[in-house]
Design a protein that fits this description.
By secondary structure, this protein is α/β, with parallel strands linked by helices. It has four helices and four strands, in the order H-E-H-E-H-E-H-E.
Length: about 100
């Protein structure tokens, strides 16, 4: 039974934010589209630095990142997150 002022929408869990980090535009856009089609909220970033500087870092529920990127690899990004206290479940993609 719903409480006072509660609607079915307010009882639904908030959409989980998936962050996609990949320097390859085609893969990044394809993964963003796939995750959105599955009902997730998605933010896409072309580099690890862009993701780390983003206000979306705090709300990210899952990270999908390329292992091989210039400047900072996906593995280095994951290690940086762990070292700074962010334990975001991460999927590392090797293509």
């Amino acid at each position: 039974m719903a409480g006072l002022g509660e609607t079915p929408e307010s009882r639904m869990p908030k959409a989980l934010l998936i962050a996609v980090v990949d320097d390859d535009w085609f893969f990044r856009d394809s993964m963003r589209s796939l995750m959105k089609s599955l009902g997730y909220t998605v933010e896409a970033f072309s580099s690890a630095a862009d993701f780390l500087a983003s206000p979306h870092l705090i709300e990210t529920a899952c990270l999908i990142t390329d292992v091989h990127m210039p400047a900072m690899t996906g593995i280095e990004l994951y290690r940086r997150l762990i070292d700074t206290g962010y334990t975001i479940p991460t999927i590392l993609v090797r293509r």
